[in-house]
Amino acid sequence: MPCIFELPRYILKIGSENWVLSPEYFMKKIFFFLFFAVLLTAAGFIAFSFFNVERDPEATPSEAVPKGEDEAEDKAEDKAVDEAREEAMPREQRAEDMNTASDPVTEDEPAKLTEAEVLAWLHADRSLWPRQLDLAAPVTFVIHEGGERIGESTAPEGASVRLQEIDLESGEVMVALGELSRRIPITQTDLPRRSLEARDIFLQRIQAAGKMSEQTTADSAGSDQSAEAPAEKSFSRAEAKSLRDALVEWLERELEMAKATSNSDSIERFNRALDQAKRKGPDDFRPQENDVVSHLPVISDNPYGQAFLRARRTSGYSFPVKKRDDRYFESVSAVGCRSSAYELNPAVWDLCSPQSSFYLSPDHLKSVLAHLEDLIFLQKGGNFVVGGRGDGNMNRFTWASLNDSYLMLVRTFPDLLPDPLRDYYEKAIWMGAKHEVKSFEPEIYDWEKLKKRWENQTRDADYRLPFWYPNIDATYALMVHLAGRILQEKEPYREDAENFLELAELRVRRLAQVADPPPPYESNSEIGVQFPHGGWTYMGFTNETINYHNVTLRRLVRYWQLSDSPAAKKALVNSAPYFPISIEPAGVGLDTAAPFWKTLGTHRVSSTYPEIIAGVTGCPWNKALAEKIAARNGHEANLMAASLYNPDLEPAKLSDNAIILDRNIVGPRGRFGRWSFLATGRDTRRDRGKMSYVGAMVTNEDPKAFPVSGALMGAFFEYKETPDDRKYISMGDRTGGTEISQTHLHEKGAAFTVETTLQEPNSGGGRNKAERLPWLQTQLWILTGQRMVGYMELRPESRQTGYGRAVIFRLGSERRGPHFANILKEQGKESWLVGDLALRVIEHNFDRAVIEKGDQRSYDFLWGSPGWGDIRLEDATDAGEQVYTPDDPRFVVVEIRPASSQPAGNITFSESRKGHYTLSVESGEGPMTLHYYDDTNEGRLSGAGSRQPLQ
Questions:
Q1: How far apart are CA 919 and CA 550, in angstroms?
Q2: Are strands 848-853 and 773-783 parallel, antiparallel or unpaired?
Q3: How far apart are CA 428 and CA 405, in angstroms?
Q4: Do residues 254 and 266 make contact, with C-beta atoms less than 8 angstroms apart?
Q5: Pair 426, 493: CB distance under 8 Å
Q6: pLDDT digits (tens, 9 = 90+) for 150-179
């Protein structure tokens, strides 16, 4: 059986990394000596001309050096301007300047760079570091415990170690083997060889970037697909004064507003901050280069970077200053705080990145500070969820984004904020972190107990312990890591901040665990925070939803970017198979396999997410998927995808026309051109169950149309316990019910069978926590490259009364698409067409078939868009209360297929004796028969082209 995807585990390959030059260390040394040479030779004008002649003629000239009355001050200003001009220069341009001074980079004559210079680049820019090194000689690592030497571990020649630090002056590197580390000579590693490889790659990138820039400039006139970074800017005294004036103006406005609301604390804070701001000098506003603000590599060949910069230039920034009083406080929800924090993050990047049009903008500084002040005002004791304003998870989301923004701001402008503002903001950040640690674990001050619980937890431990909720756990880890970095140098926060950092590392380490049980893979017992095909659990033991996978991914990637965490990297590498398996090349996926209260139907995914994973892991399948989605839907303006974009990564060919066992959902998943399907067999154990076992989709052939033509988003039952109480019922039960499913893969199709108890869905509590419903169901499905054929049966366990039963087939196109009535077409008796998806009822014993439009439903779960609708087979309800017995089940036999496939010639179902079922299909694919025995829960598929199930 050929696998639809054959995705190995990936490691980051140094040769395919997106290399970015940042030679701060080297450049500062050079200009330090140049400066003194200029003073000694009195050749300042010549030196200045020298640097400008060698610069790219397209570059914008820097501002003239201002002349003051004090000669010493003028000379210091000269040096500062020169250094700032070089620091503000794009990294690729600085590299070109450094080489063209004596040996221009050309196609015929590459620059001659020494090994020491390459090592200097590696030292200056952590993004250039190889993640692993090989030892050129054996190295012994000493093991200590409590200050006592208790043993040693010798790594042989060729062993892989981790690079932690480079010291060029001593010629040593700090390397790690597991938890052990030591300093060794550079020559005992393969770093010299790798540095020369880095040199070659870098020189190629300089040449390529020059060609791309010229071509883009020639082709970009009038095009909305090109957006170069703004010309480099130097930092002058005039800019410092503008920033100071903006800060003073903003503080004066805030002070007036505080007086208007008689807020004595704010009045005092803004008074002290205003006094300090007026006394700040130019150096207090000088931007500092740092590793927190993301850099966009090779803008001319980076479509995400182009889209992002284009969006930032046209969005406009004028965050309004609110009247911060109690009425304003009560009017904003926790969800609103989260959204506001999301908006703040790219806005701060704009202020802090030389690649932004808003870099060093005084007006933008005022907007950012107003936005930050607004958010801090809206928390009370570190909590944004006050006065019944919503979901406690909003705290983690809000603080993660706010802390990220604040760290970018203070790392870029370490002296810009007056102390009263910094103390106020950082106290709030401290309280937010403290509040969330307390909400996650009651032993808020017992750090050792917390760490022990996180270190010792196993997969089968109580699921409410850490890593039970991955998207929140990843957000929490990022939040406390950022809080720790912001606060660790500030007393009295330092000790607890370091504990935050350690807890974040431990939590992400647990998040990186992979559950990978041995064959046979038909087992539905695969559980754990991350599944073998890259998905994370949504919550507890449930399947994941696509949108929450994206949340976990974004948080882990940012955490990894900031911390270089091996655990976060491992989790991201392990996630590589997820998108190529779960997302159609058209850019959509089905959430049918999600837990019932998060089943959203068809979910559109931008190319951003597979592009991010391709950038982190070097995965060629994710690169191919990203390119296919982007070719259809365009590139999203996304900073993370832009910073990780790797144009050198070659895409692989995406497989098609096959079925696999998707171990994210423990069931079959098939993709055959525009037609795809899935069935989910994961046992959710104690967690809430699923709405549907099967789903299918046909994508649109027209690339200009929405990707989904028609979809089966679910097939499930409903039961009316009272005349007015319609209860849709979900599969699985966490209070003692059973769910036994089997998947078998064959040459021409797959068989999926399930026998399960049912439960009443309730996302926030209710009967499903205390008892299961006294109803059982059986489903049999044959799934092939041209159709799905299924048998669904509902029966009570014992004598029951009620007011009707129904089976529902939920159909639709896009989530916010045309009204269901406008896309549904009746094709004949009990046969319908939604887009290019056809549904035909073969046989049933309900009383009637009805159509229910999407806007007429009032279910308490998240399906509910006008683009959807139901085909309902139901009991008549005008006869009043009915009695239901196990000997009188309701059933349906149905065929679902793409409209391009011919209907099956003959579909039959029979029960040879009680509990022994046979489902047969005759079509152009050949005859297929599924035999199912409910006393053994065993299913077997026979017929043309069949073979033994995969093991």
A1: 39
A2: unpaired
A3: 14
A4: yes
A5: yes
A6: 888 888 988 888 888 787 777 888 888 877
Contact (CB, 8 A) for 352 and 408 = yes
**What is the rounded CA–CA span in Å between residue 52 and residue 82?**
11
Strands of the sheet containing 938-943, edge to edge, are 906-913, 916-922, 928-933, 938-943
By CB atoms closer than 10 A (0-12, 13-18, 19+), residue 703 is: exposed
Q: Give me the residue label for tokens 């198979």.
A: 577
Phi, psi dihedral angles at 149 (to 5 degrees): -75, 120
At position 842, the amino acid (one-letter code) is I
Give the global pTM. Answer: 0.74
Q: Is the peptide bond before 796 cis (omega within 30 degrees of 0)?
A: no
| Tokens 């000689």 sit on residue | 137
Q: What are phi and psi of 800, to 5 degrees?
A: -130, 155
For residue 249 the two structure tokens come to 């103006």
| Separation between Cα atoms, residue 421 and residue 837, nearest integer Å | 59
Residue type, 451: K
C-alpha span between 826 and 799 (Å, rounded) = 37
Q: For residue 396, give the nearest of 413, 410, 379 by alpha carbon.
A: 379
Instruction: Specify the 3-state DSSP secondary structure of 530.
Output: strand
Low-confidence ranges of the chain (pLDDT < 70): 1-131, 146-147, 197-234, 314-322, 387-389, 442-445, 457-467, 513-528, 600, 685-687, 726-728, 732-738, 761-771, 814-822, 854-867, 935-951
For residue 523, what are its two tokens?
């087992």
- Residue pair 739/683 in contact by the 8 Å Cβ criterion: yes
Rounded CA-CA distance 519/522 in Å is 8
Separation CA 201–CA 195 (nearest Å): 10
Taking CA atoms, 221 is separated from 5, 216, 252, in Å, by 41, 9, 44
For 527-533, which contacts have Cβ atoms below 8 Å and span 24 or more sequence positions? 527/459, 527/685, 528/459, 529/459, 529/467, 529/470, 530/470, 530/571, 530/574, 530/575, 531/663, 531/664, 532/663, 532/664, 533/7, 533/577, 533/578, 533/581, 533/662, 533/663, 533/664
* Phi, psi (degrees; rounded to nearest 5) at 9: -75, 140
Instruction: Report helix, strand or coil for 784.
Output: coil
The amino acid at residue 928 is M
Query: For residue 427, what are its two tokens?
Result: 């106290």
Inter-residue contact 537 to 531 (CB < 8 Å): yes
Q: Where are the beta strands (DSSP E) in 358-428?
A: none
For the chain, how many helices (H) and strands (E)? 24, 31
Q: Which residue has the tokens 């619980």?
A: 453
pLDDT for residue 602: 75
621-656 burial by CB neighbour count: b if 16+ within 10 A, else e?
Answer: bbbbbbbbbbebbebbbbbbbbbbbbebbebbebbe
Tokens of 887: 């000997």
Cα end-to-end distance, the chain, whole Å: 11
Helix (H/G/I), strand (E/B), else coil: 893: strand
Query: In the numeric block, which tokens belong to residue 54?
Result: 């060698």
Q: ω before 23 within 30° of 0 (cis)?
A: no
594 token code pair: 């999600």
Which two tokens mark 448? Answer: 């050792």
Q: Which of 190, 132, 140, 118 is nearest to 161 (CA)?
A: 132
